[in-house]
Amino acid sequence: MTFTIYGPGYSTYVRTVRMVLEEKATPYDLVEVDLLKGEHREPAHLARNPFGTVPAFDHDGFALYESRAIATYLDRILGEPRLTPADPKAEARMLQIQGIVDSYGYDAMIRTIFIQRAIVAARGGTVDEAAIAAARPKAELSLAEIERLMGAGPWLAGAAISLADLWLAPVLAYFRMVPEGRAAMAARPGLAGWFERIEARPSFQRTVPRLG
Ligand SMILES: N[C@@H](CCC(=O)N[C@@H](CS)C(=O)NCC(=O)O)C(=O)O
Fold it and tell me: What is the CATH architecture of 3-77?
């Protein structure tokens, strides 16, 4: 069985899929598609995913894109640990948190605030402060809701690690590098404690992106 992930190691969604495979101690190939060079809009990548996002994925000729589809497929075909709770309520919580990240959190925390503060600034561009200010309430609401839904934890969907944890971890790893993220985390001790737990896992440590 050969698993191939197409995308840059610095992408949060690529990291999520890598973390699924790392949790399951399954080897894979990572084929670089550099977003910063626009390679995701070139024909070779559009043939894998016409929407031009990463990751794209292949398992022995079975091609997929969309991180939820990829992660759920891997969770179904690979062994322990199961990353989808057996309990229907915990599974619903996991799906709810994945939805919050996909629909609100990623856009606010990464696509807007992190990209402006870290990437645009590092490349000498003009940081769009108005866009950051507009995105901040949604970033904070996403984290407030995830912390509330997590309850006593210790993992986001309950007693065991699940895809919900792998959805948020790469996003927070970046968001806490910028002042808005550091402030949000300082106000959320429950999430800060959770981040220490996920950060200690080999799946997190083995996928730390090389930046710069
Ligand atoms: N719905 C997609 C979203 C993936 C996504 O937004 N990936 C980002 C990188 S983390 C990307 O491809 N950005 C480039 C772009 O949108 O042009 C999924 O779940 O895989």
Answer: 3-Layer(aba) Sandwich (3.40)
Query: What CATH code would you report for 88-205?
Result: 1.20.1050.10
- Counting from 1 in the atom list of ligand 1, the atom nearest the Cα of 53 is 12
pTM above threshold 0.85? yes
**Minimum-distance ligand 1 atom for the alpha carbon of 55:** 20
- Which residue ranges have their beta carbon within 6 Å of ligand 1? 11-13, 35, 40, 52-54, 66-68
Domain boundaries, the chain: 3-77, 88-205
Sequential DSSP letters for 34-102: -GGGTGGGSHHHHTT-TT--S-EEEETTEEEESHHHHHHHHHHHS-SSPSS-SSHHHHHHHHHHHHHII
Q: Which atom of ligand 1 is nearest the CA belonging to 12? A: 10
pLDDT digits (tens, 9 = 90+) for 94-140: 999 999 999 999 999 999 999 999 999 999 999 999 999 999 999 99
